[in-house]
Specification:
433 residues, alpha/beta, Rossmann fold, Alpha-Beta Plaits, 3 domains, 7-stranded mixed β-sheet, 15 helices, 20% strand, metal-binding, GTP-binding, GTPase_HflX_N_sf, GTP-bd_M, magnesium
């Protein structure tokens, strides 16, 4: 409705500021990958060694003149800044360069618009785009007069700009109402999973760390996975059976990026809540990435923003096939709990170690013991076998079954409660010491 997508292949100049402050400095290589992911035809990258941005253009007037000459000489369609521009800076730059100007936030929003597939994903992207556009509407109407007076020209007193703002506010309210409904539906589904005692595990991590490839390898799914930024936008959930634990729900989520625009975090809150309501987060890390430590910090910052930083986290160092001399392994903390798993999702190496680590972390409250079941509990005995919880079986002199059981206590409680017992009472009567 509000956005006309270009056919692609736009000739673009990238402008990267070499700021001195490492907290606000962006990565030039990541910027190039973002532009390529958006479909830009990169003509060149201009690096600006300036750490004091100007209010009017962000860069100095000399650099603006240099960019104008470059735009004219190379027939450039678009100039992209690896920085956040104010609405006035965008307008001033477009007037000076006589071409479209886009900042880092607009670039990421465009990639999201291309990647969204589901109705929910498209709504979330449109919400973020409209909120971003709301401060930039003036740019689209600088060529029109505002209100006119005189005979025959007196109207309701609303300019085209005001009309657009009103329509935009109406559309924003509609989208937010729909997303609230989506959030309610997701919460209802999560309550259902909690009632069934099925743990939820979410894959989180920096964009292009290999989350979707790992998700496909674990669940035998065919979620779209590619060597590009933000290949996954729409969350996908699959059921996964783990030995010694039973079923879990595994969620593949949108990747994070350095200085992820706040508008995107807000727009995708319904999706990101899938992570904040999980029992365990699998933080997928590209072990081959030179700046992996900085990427880890950025992911933790976003997790804190959505209230998921207190959840248990298992670090998954992916892509070890690109490293020399690194074998699949589990690294443990001082108390023996798994802390890191090194694997290669692409090569399928180390997946069984990840299964083991997840089962250990989620199966903290594991029941291991021998139950004495009389013939009257034959149906419960069959359910233990069906759940794969029976390690061995014997019989006593009275003909009662002696089952060596190993399964999560929540699963034990669920089976016992279904048969009409209180778990504590059942265990007190039927557990052999």
């Amino acid at each position: 409705m509000f956005f006309e997508r270009h056919g692609g292949g736009e000739r673009a100049v990238l402008v990267h500021l070499e700021g001195q402050d490492p907290q606000v400095r962006e990565d030039a290589q990541e910027f190039r990958e973002l532009a390529l992911s958006a479909g830009a035809e990169i003509v060149c990258m201009v690096c600006v060694p300036r750490h004091r941005p100007t209010a009017k253009f962000l860069v100095g007037t000399g650099k603006v003149d240099e960019l104008r000459d470059l735009v004219e000489a190379e027939q450039i369609d678009l100039v992209i800044f690896n920085h956040t521009l104010t609405p006035s800076q965008e307008r001033n730059l477009e007037a000076a360069l006589s071409c479209r100007v886009l900042d880092r936030t607009g670039l990421i929003l465009d990639i999201f618009a291309q990647r969204a597939r589901t109705h929910e994903g498209k709504l979330q992207v449109e919400l973020a785009q409209l909120e971003h556009m709301s401060t930039r509407l003036v740019r689209g109407w600088t060529h029109l007069e505002r209100q006119k007076g005189g005979i025959g020209l007196r109207g309701p007193g609303e300019t085209q700009l005001e009309t657009d703002r009103r329509l935009l506010r109406v559309r924003l309210r509609q989208i937010k109402a729909r997303l609230d409904k989506v959030r309610s539906q997701r919460e209802q589904a999560r309550r259902g999973r909690r009632r069934a005692d099925i743990p939820s595990v979410s894959l989180v991590g920096y964009t292009n760390a290999g989350k979707s490839t790992l998700f496909n390898a674990l669940t035998q799914s065919e979620v779209y996975a590619a060597d590009q930024l933000f290949a996954t936008l729409d969350p996908t959930l699959r059921r996964l059976e783990l030995a010694d634990l039973g079923p879990i729900v595994l969620a593949d989520t949108v990747g994070f990026i350095r200085h992820l625009p706040h508008k995107l975090v807000e727009a995708f809150r319904a999706t990101l809540e899938e992570s904040s309501n999980s029992e365990l987060l699998l933080h997928v890390i590209d072990s081959h990435e030179p700046e992996r430590d900085q990427q880890v910090e950025q992911v933790l910052a976003v997790l804190a923003e959505i209230g998921a930083n207190e959840l248990p986290i298992l670090e998954v160092y992916n892509k070890i096939d690109l490293l020399d001399g690194v074998e699949p392994q589990i690294q443990r903390r001082g108390d023996g709990r798994p802390e890191r798993v090194w694997l290669s999702a692409q090569a399928g190496r180390g997946l069984e170690l990840l299964h083991q680590a997840i089962a250990e972390l989620l199966g903290d409250d594991l029941f291991v013991g021998t139950l004495c079941l009389p013939q009257s509990l034959a149906r419960l005995r069959a359910q233990f076998f069906e759940a794969g919880a029976v390690q061995s079986e014997d019989h006593d002199g009275a003909g009662d079954s002696l089952l060596a059981i190993r399964l999560p206590r929540v699963e034990l409680n669920r089976l016992v409660t279904r048969e009409g017992w209180q778990p504590a009472e059942f265990l007190a009567q039927h557990t052999l010491q």
